[in-house]
Every structure is written in C-alpha cells, then in structure tokens.
Amino acid sequence: MRILLSPAKKMKIDRDTLEVGGLPALLERTQEILEWLQGKSDEELQRLWKCNDKIARENVERLRGMQLYKELTPAILSYVGLAFQYMAPAVFEDGQLSYIEEHLRILSGFYGVLRPMDGVTPYRLEMQAKASVGGSRDLYDFWGRSLYEQVRSEDGVFINLASGEYSSCIERWIEPEDTYITCVFAEEVNGKMVQKGTYAKMARGEMVRFMAEHRIEAPEDMKRFDRLGFVFREDLSDHKEYVFERRLEKEKSF
Fold first, then answer.
1. Is residue 238 part of a domain?
2. Does the predicted model carry a pTM greater than 0.90?
C-alpha cells in the first residue's frame, strides 16, 4: 500500500531532528530540472513561480547556489504546511517512522517522488508550472509514467491524500488491477457536501498520523478515522472514494 501526499510550497531546513536516510530515486532527472531553471532569468523565474518580489528573490538566491547532494533535510521535515503540521512527524516514534518510510510517498514537481527520509533542499516548483524541461510540454509530460512506477507497491493499493494537481500525475497511469482510493474530507453546507481546503489539509496530515499510529495495512481499517470531528460516511463512499464528514457542533439551546 502506498499513501500519496502533496508537498507544501513553504519549506525549511532542519538537519538536527532526524538523519537523512538516502537520496531521492529520480535525482538525475531533478538535476535536469535544476539546470533548466538555472538557465532562466530572474524575471522568467518569477513568472514561472507566480509569486511576489520577496518570494522570488529568496528562491532565486536558493537556486543559484543549490546543492542536491549535501546539506540536506529529510523530506518529511522540510515542508511547512497544514498537512505536515498535523502529521507532526518530528514526534513520531520509531515504529511510526518505519511505517511512513514504507508506505508514505510525497509527490513533487522538482523531485518527482520522495520517501519521507530522502534528503532534499528547499525549492519552489509546483507540478502545474509551465516548465518545458528537455522539450517536454510541462512537468506532467516530463515525469510521465515514472512517478507511477516509483510509487506503486506490490499489492497495487494507492491511498490518495494528495490534491488534484499532484494526484493526477498518478491517476492517469492507474491499471485495472490497481486499487486507487481517494479520501474526501468534507462538511455539509446547504445540503451539499463541500470540501474546504484548510480542514482538508489538516485532515490529510491527521490521517497519515492515524495510519502510522495504528499501523494500518488495509484500506477498510481507515474507516475508523475519527479525528478533527470527521466521521466516515459509508452511504456516501464507494470502492474508489472514502468520504469523511466533519460534523459541526450544534449550538446548545438553553
């Protein structure tokens, strides 16, 4: 079983909490992207990144001196975002770290696929960026089927906790014998189930922690997830989509 998770835009350096366990599997291809980026002007990079001047300056500085093989941070600690905050990997116990190292994969426009303890350096490059590296149309074209092949486990079970921007690079290659389940974290608004970004990101991180704490090996056991007010809705779910509803507390009447 493989758990798919999106990266976060904001990143940090942490070389003290955990040791790097290895290098990303597709690092040679990352080198191609790095050289392509380093060949762009500051203005071209800012347009590619679609960011303000301050963020552009910070990332141009990172890019000009970027090292892919040294002074690295474990991927699971490098991303600063709600999913990673609620996963809280820095306080995982040894057994939980072993679980996520085996099962969790972080999808990345720059690195392709990351295991939790793979060493990375801060970068900025979203999967949907219009980066025509090596003559490719975009990053989806550049990475092609290689991400699916890196992620797939022997049992062919995928648990999708990634956003559409990232999950689509795996979904397009799913085979009939695979099991691909997307988790939806939503709440009822005016009679409709609506997925709100903030709570969905929080729940994705909590789900990874829940699965690690309980050593979940079968999708069926994920249905017991009951954190942040979410409960599994059997009536809204099927073999391709698990729906968890956030039950809002009703105001007490006195």
1. yes
2. yes
